[in-house]
Write a structure and sequence with these properties.
Length: 306
């Protein structure tokens, strides 16, 4: 048998061999493959030359598969079936007939924004599974870096080159408070009005807090945080219980209103935080993830709608 490295076996040759073996006739095999009889004969002859084997004994009125041909026929059928499966799967992935997309998002986007987009996406592509990981803000870039998710939605606080951040939108920092809080009576709030006021906020490893603290330090302002927690829902709940005010972004407005709280943007200066699509710089997105990414970009203003 010829060395494997010298072979130039084609899928068309293998299909011709299978058809002739099943039909035991070149003309019927040609009809099955929608080819001419001479083309099928040529393909089988080329395969025999490539393999260095005689696959059929040809007589005037009789065509019979050889022992060698019969021996390799099951393996050839399996190989062709495997290739057909790859082609079919690739087509389904390309057309989003099936597949999976995995997203990490901070809990506010995960709870208030992404479910609507996931519903729209799954209605259009019911064969695709969407996995949503609702995590604390610092977990989002970590999960993108590790490859646990296709991409993330959150705030990137460092300049490491393994992530790329594509700005989706920005929302302003605001105070969430009970309607009976003294600050609620003011028509406008400034950051200096918050000095010495008990504040509830995220922990020090949160990238949103890091950007806010840096901006306030430039103004000579330091907030007095009395409670530090991970999740926005916990912060809102602590405000509702009367433990202080929370400095958050306006993305929580709907959540706060559901508990009877008010959200007031803080000015002088007006500070914002960015909501970005975080991707790994060295990994390509699957067709499924690309399509959901496009949906996010088209609906990017929804990420900060109050």
């Amino acid at each position: 048998m010829k060395e494997l490295t010298n072979m130039n076996v084609s899928l068309r040759q293998l299909r011709a061999f299978i058809a002739v073996a099943e039909e035991q006739h070149f003309t019927r095999a040609a009809d099955k493959l929608d080819l001419s009889q001479s083309s099928v004969s040529t393909l089988v002859h080329e395969l025999e030359n490539n393999l260095g084997l005689r696959l059929f004994d040809r007589h005037t009125r009789l065509l019979q598969i050889t022992d060698a041909g019969a021996e390799i026929l099951p393996a050839v059928k399996k190989a062709v079936a495997d290739i057909d499966s790859v082609i079919l799967n690739s087509s389904e992935l390309r057309t989003l007939g099936r597949g999976r997309v995995s997203i990490a998002a901070s809990s506010v986007q995960a709870a208030l924004i992404l479910p609507r987009l996931i519903e729209e996406f799954c209605n259009e592509f019911p064969g695709v599974r969407v996995e949503l990981h609702d995590v604390a803000e610092p977990e989002v870039p970590r999960m993108v870096r590790s490859g646990e998710v296709d991409f993330g939605i959150g705030t990137e606080s460092d300049s490491r080159l393994d992530l790329t951040a594509h700005l989706l939108s920005a929302d302003a920092f605001a105070v969430v408070m009970r309607p009976d809080h003294a600050l609620a009576r003011r028509r406008e709030l400034r950051w200096r009005d918050l000095i010495d006021v008990p504040v509830i906020g995220p922990r020090s490893d949160n990238p949103i807090r890091a950007r806010l603290d840096e901006a306030l330090r430039n103004e000579g302002i330091v907030l007095r945080r009395v409670h530090e927690v991970h999740l926005p829902l916990t912060m809102v709940g602590m405000v509702e219980a009367g433990l202080g005010i929370a400095v958050m972004s306006t993305a929580v407005t709907r959540m706060a209103a559901g508990l009877g709280l008010i959200t007031r943007t803080v000015k002088e200066p007006l500070l914002t935080r960015e909501v970005s699509l975080l991707l790994h710089a060295d990994r390509s997105l699957s067709p499924t993830a690309q399509r959901f990414r496009d949906l996010l970009v088209r609906n990017r203003l929804e990420l900060t709608k109050e």
